[in-house]
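call fold(seq) -> tokens
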Amino acid sequence: MSNTRVVVVGGGISGLTTAYRLRTLLGSAAEIVLIEGSRRLGGALRTVDLGGVALDVGAEAFLVRRPEAVDLIEELGLGGQLRHPTPAAPTVRAGGQTMPLPTGTMLGVPGAVADVAGLLSVQGAAQVAAEPAIPLRWEPGCDASVGLLLRERAGDELVDRLVDPLLGGVYAGRA
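ret:
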């Protein structure tokens, strides 16, 4: 396999993991080239300085009910750096107040306006309440973000205060 050449495009967590797995599978004789368009590796995952304290930003978690991520972390010798979530109930800060994360939502998308009423202004709650009557403008095959679809149907406030922060924390991206 000494003539094996592979190019991995993208130096985010998926690209880095792919390059690592290829090296493990193909051995040291394979040529593996990682191409990244930005000045640093890691994609959305990075460390920033916040008042002199190193803070990891990007995706905040991974699912431990599946063993693959934990196995990789252990294999890389990073198991001792794992941090487990606090047992404290999740909260959200909106309108100058910190409140419990609504329980009747799926990644911030409410099943009913009552689930998010305390987090939104009267106007924001009214937009969520009106959502079921708004025709869906999405066409099958069109590429639209969750944020765009929800903004059109339930308003900016729901997306900005709840959906975008939750999706960003889980998936390291914008709604």
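The CA atoms of residues 82 and 108 lie 26 Å apart.
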